[in-house]
Specification:
This protein has a domain of 138 residues. The chain is built from no helices and 16 strands.
């Protein structure tokens, strides 16, 4: 049985001021400088009788922020204000499995974009991306990609971003199983239509035996991503990058 968890949030109520103005060298032991940060506050949400975990924070233009969480296998979204008051919470019907959010972002229309994966063992693993109107609580679309059983660690979407203002969305991650010449778990990038979520194209990248794009940014019309790969036959404890 998995342990019962209550997710928590640590909020710092004062911003660092003049952090680097008087320092030429970063010293971890001196961070933050004395008298520049208020006292942290620890707030917990949920109950000990429910399997819960928080997994992503996203600041909103209003000064509030969203928390994504998992609650008894369902995706839970909640909005909090700057004083940590819970304004609303909603469950999203993503899949019929245990779902987890990997990434959240906002597009230029202030719509919420998200990615994640289901993690039911002995069942088909599903990577998913979705678009959600969080102000009116309306799930606009969700798109899924099904992988092999027992492959939740190697079949997931990590990042979703708007290509340009009013444009389509780019999704990066890792998929398994793949068509040749892939060897199993490949890094993947795909483009989704802004309005319908339909897939415009998808490309897998095979560098050895197992690859992934974990964090992606768009800068000056280029895509930058971090990830890892290991050589064919090397095992997951070998080559990483």
């Amino acid at each position: 049985m998995r342990p019962l968890l209550a997710f928590f949030l640590i909020a710092f109520f004062a911003l660092f001021t003049n952090l680097l103005s008087a320092q030429s060298t970063y010293r971890p032991s001196a961070f933050p400088p004395p008298d520049t940060c208020g006292q942290p506050s620890l707030v917990t949400y949920g109950t000990g009788a429910t399997d819960e975990v928080g997994n992503y924070l996203l600041p909103l233009p209003s000064g509030h922020f969203l928390i994504s969480a998992a609650q008894d296998g369902d995706v839970l979204l909640a909005e909090l204000d700057g004083e940590l008051n819970l304004l609303w919470q909603r469950k999203l019907p993503i899949t019929l499995r245990a779902d987890n959010i990997r990434h959240l972002s906002l597009d230029s229309d202030n719509m919420l974009l998200g990615t994640g994966f289901s993690e039911n063992f002995n069942a088909q693993i599903v990577a998913y991306a979705f678009k959600y109107d969080y102000q009116n609580h309306n799930l606009l679309w969700i798109r899924t990609l099904t992988g092999l059983p027992n492959q939740n660690r190697t079949h997931t979407f990590y990042t979703i971003l708007e290509k340009e203002t009013g444009g389509n969305y780019l999704v990066t991650g890792q998929t398994q199983q793949n068509d040749p010449p892939g060897l199993g778990c490949d890094a993947v990038i795909l483009e989704l239509d802004r309005n319908s979520g339909s897939r415009a194209w998808m490309q897998n990248y095979n560098l050895g035996s197992c690859e992934t794009f974990q964090k992606t940014i768009l800068l000056n019309n280029s895509i930058y991503s971090t990830g890892r790969y290991n050589f064919a036959g090397g095992g997951t404890d070998k080559m990483r990058a």
